[in-house]
Design brief:
It comes from Undibacterium rugosum. By secondary structure, the protein is α/β, with parallel strands linked by helices. Helices cover 38% and strands 25% of the residues. Helix 3 runs parallel beside helix 7 and helix 5 runs antiparallel to helix 7.
Length: 242
């Protein structure tokens, strides 16, 4: 569904990704774990068109989207919920969600039943239903994170990229975010998850990749990685699980 081959990316002269390859099969949750500075967010930005890869290919649902602009890749079916919860602060929660579906209104994505999906999003994120008329800028950080995720779902995408969905959240909200990811998985959504909580990410994922200094050091089924002594020592020790 989403395939990355030999991806290289840089910021100016600083090479961050050194030829990484990974696959996100349809209906699966794949997680990318690694320490800060390993290149996880750069990978997400290169996939979603926020930065242009230096070399390598990104294929989405059989279509080569390498080097395309973000809005073109979104129309091809990629929803990116970026780190830092970018929401439209001066618009209501409902309008933020409808904006997520914008390519469906313009028919550059299959339209489907937008009203039904809006209700579904409110069910999935009950906090958003309670605050649906509020301006997004008045929401707490946790609620803004829910909104960024819900907006990605509203595109009805082929693949959802979730970049650090638990970042900066209180533990109770981290648990809620992972419950929602689990429910999206049960709905058959295809997701690539970048996450600092490696234990929680591997618990929800089907497959995992470990990124070290811009290279994939190890990958395999998530349960195998959970039991890998090297992965446990580096990523599943103190402070990395909740």
């Amino acid at each position: 569904m989403l395939s990355i081959q030999n991806l290289h990316a840089a910021y100016g002269k600083v090479q961050v990704l050194h030829g990484i390859s990974l696959d996100v099969p349809k209906g699966k949750v794949v997680t990318l774990i690694g320490s800060n500075g390993a290149g996880k967010t750069t990978t997400m930005r290169a996939i979603s068109g926020m930065i242009k890869p230096k070399e390598g290919t990104v294929t989405l649902a059989g279509k080569n989207v390498t080097g395309m602009d973000s809005h073109q890749i979104a129309r091809a079916g990629l929803a990116h919920s970026p780190e830092g919860r970018r929401v439209f602060a001066t618009m209501s929660v409902t309008d933020n969600l409808l904006l997520g579906a914008f390519p469906r209104f313009t028919r550059s994505r299959p339209r489907g039943d937008i009203e039904h999906d809006l209700q579904n999003a409110m069910e999935l994120f009950p906090r958003l239903r309670e605050r649906r008329h509020q301006l997004a800028g008045t929401l707490s950080g946790g609620e803004q994170q829910m909104l960024a995720m819900a907006r990605a779902v509203m595109l009805n995408p082929e693949v959802i990229l979730l970049d650090e969905p638990s970042m900066g959240l209180a533990p109770i909200l981290v648990d809620e975010v992972f419950r929602i990811i689990q429910r999206l998985k049960q709905e058959g959504r295809t997701m690539l998850l970048v996450e600092q909580f490696a234990a929680a990410a591997l618990a929800v994922a089907d497959y995992g990749y470990v990124l070290e200094n811009g290279r994939i050091s190890v990958h395999g089924p998530a349960d195998k990685l959970q039991n890998d002594p090297a992965v446990q020592a580096a990523y599943l020790g103190g402070g990395h699980s909740h």
